[in-house]
Amino acid sequence: MIIVETKSLPSQRVALISDFVPGMGNENIGPVIGPMYATLAQRLEAAGIGFGSAVAVYEARGDAGVQVDAAFQVESDVTAGEGFDVVELPAVDLTATTVHRGSMATIGETWEALMAWVVEHGYEPAGVCREFYLVSETESQDEWVTELQQPIMREAA
């Protein structure tokens, strides 16, 4: 059982790097995204740029697979640098969100429950999903806290 909240999301300025994986799911994303965060953190530190919470963005690209963006929040005056881009993630009028507590190995189950909630409550996905890492700097992933964010809209009648 999950608790779902619907809310708007503000825009967020992030520094990011991107890669492609063959599909959704921890088996595809997990081995890629962890090293991406380490690489991005090193590049930002080398550029003398402070950064905040981690954000992941996943966008299905048809036959090309899934674009995975590993990002960190940055201040509004930060610009792209060597080996990373800086973008403004757009504000979202309506999202279904829930919190996953624990390892990334089980986050797929929480995503499945969130997507089932979306359909059961008369919504449909309406954009690129995100993960916002509330707690991720711990020894064990079992202590991680991640907000799952799925933009939604009412199903067409």
Automatic annotation (TrEMBL):
Organism: Rhodococcoides kyotonense
Pfam family membership, one: GyrI-like
Spans traversing the lipid bilayer: none
Protein name: Effector-binding domain-containing protein
All residue ranges annotated as the AraC effector-binding domain in the record: 2-153
Matches recorded under InterPro entries: AraC_E-bd, GyrI-like, Reg_factor_effector_dom_sf
